[in-house]
């Protein structure tokens, strides 16, 4: 861990629930399961997040991935810092049509100014549906 970051000392899950994921994630039904700098997990229902033919919308996978990766980067960044997404990409390899999907976020790189996370999104049978990679830049948080 970099000496320029000071992760929050509260439980990661408590920190995430207190901060919230924002209005879009709430509308999509995303819920935290586990949250720490090393591993973050959230679920999202397929129902209500589909494209016209009934498949989970590709953008919904990306919202789940960005929510997990950006929040994990902000927990890592610590007090007085802000992590903002500067790059995201997704490869969809399977289509979910019902139930819930689960995103598991793990860090690839945790640096002083950049973090990179991979988010693997799987269906209820454990089959990977999408792989998302997000890069966040860590900067000073704006002063109130």
UniProtKB/TrEMBL annotation:
Protein's recorded name: Hotdog fold thioesterase
Organism in which the protein naturally occurs: Microbacterium galbum
One Pfam family matching this protein: 4HBT
UniProt keyword annotations, A-Z: Hydrolase
InterPro entries in the cross-refs: HotDog_dom_sf, PAAI_dom, Thioestr_dom
Family: Belongs to the thioesterase PaaI family.
Domain Thioesterase: 54-129
UniProt keyword annotation of RNA-binding present: no
């Amino acid at each position: 861990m970099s000496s320029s970051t000071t992760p929050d000392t509260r439980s990661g899950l408590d920190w995430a629930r207190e901060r919230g994921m924002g209005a879009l994630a709430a509308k999509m039904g995303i819920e935290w399961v586990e949250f720490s700098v090393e591993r973050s997990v959230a679920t999202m229902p397929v129902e209500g997040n589909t494209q016209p033919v009934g498949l989970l919308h590709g953008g919904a996978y990306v919202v789940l991935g960005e929510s997990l990766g950006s929040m994990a980067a902000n927990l890592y960044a610590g007090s007085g810092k802000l992590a903002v997404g500067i790059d995201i990409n997704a490869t969809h390899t399977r289509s979910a049509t019902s139930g819930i999907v689960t995103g598991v976020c793990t860090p690839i790189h945790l640096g002083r100014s950049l973090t990179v996370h991979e988010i693997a999104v799987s269906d209820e049978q454990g089959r990977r549906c999408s792989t998302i990679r997000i890069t966040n830049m860590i900067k000073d948080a704006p002063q109130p």
